[in-house]
Amino acid sequence: MLTTDIIEDHNKTLATDHQFKLAYISELLDRKGIDVQSIIDKIKAFQVAIPSWALGTGGTRFGRFPNGGEPRNLEEKIEDVGLIHQLNGSSNSISLHIPWDIPSDASAVKQLLKANQLTIDSVNSNTFQDQKDQSFSYKFGSLCHTKDESRNLAIEHNIACVEYGKQLDSKVLTVWLADGSNFPGQQHFRKAYQRTADSLATIYEAMPSDWTMLIEYKPYEPFFYSMVIPDWGTSYSLCQQIGKNAQVLVDLGHHLPNTNIEQIVGRLMHFGRLGGFHFNGSMYGDDDLTTGSIKPYQFFLIFNELVDGMQDPNVKNPPLAWMIDASHNTKDPIEDLLQSVNAILATYAKALLVDRIALADAQENNDVLKAEELLRDIFFTDVRALVAEASRQVGGALDPVATFRHAKVRENLIGQRGKFSVATGL
Ligand SMILES: [Mn+2]
Known about the structure:
With about 425 residues, this protein is α/β, with parallel strands linked by helices. It is about 50% helix and about 10% strand.
């Protein structure tokens, strides 16, 4: 943990520059009749969960180049997220991955979470690899497997995830399946879908009634011919069959290039079935880049759709579970997460600034250029001072990455944990 003095002292060195930028954006919004503090309050309330697997350096199938000081267990992962939350005030929960993060002492873990002002976001099951000495393999699928033994093992694992989650007061199970096929003819599409639907229904029945099941989709990888849940339509159909607490999870990286993700978001919210959102950046596919790093305009359009749905009283969609799902392999993981949250908050802030009455009017009257310009005008507005101010108002850093570097956090973590510590699961 950092002392509050370190954050405050570093903020002081940035204060003059910050005040200048904040005054400018405040004046700009004032002229538009927007209450600046109400926007800052909404930014302060927006919280993005950090997944335990993003705290270590990610790799490719060719190699991994860690910086050192990685968290060696669940407790150290919680400490890292606590540090991120201390710096930005916007990361108040952690998502767990089972079996990598099985709590050995649940009450001690809960105490540590409380000390770091954190909660558990979701528990994420893992049937994409076989564990050591596993009795039946997932090589040919998990919840879709042709054999009862493998399928039942995967069902039991998901139910065990819910039990671990219950111990730590989570209420969300996220299911992403690496089930699919690599060759034509390998898998019977309809049978694989039905077995998956039946398995998910069994898991759903075992969940407490106040839990949510998030079903994530992905078009390819690890399989390159077919995936059992490749798209939002498949996820949606499964949720429809399973029950009202089953919701679709959209992961930005899980789309083919040029997919209109903003339209998918709009559709799912219209149906009241968008339950979760995973942030990352993507160039070609699921490449785990920093959120907003490649297509910031599309990211803004997606957020515009999210905010439009969240603000419309006619939309009966549950509150969304926001999470970063990336583990980049060339940056310091904590710096990458701070940068990601910053990009998310700035884009959310922009979406809040869109004049929805004027936009609706332009849309209804088919004023194409006006509608587009209303969005472009906001997209090109620099709102980073609002995000910095939101962080400052809750005791965070004006510039979290700069403070992280100034306080030599990574150097200290390497000192404590060693140069060659490896995060569990990586
Ligand atoms: Mn994801």
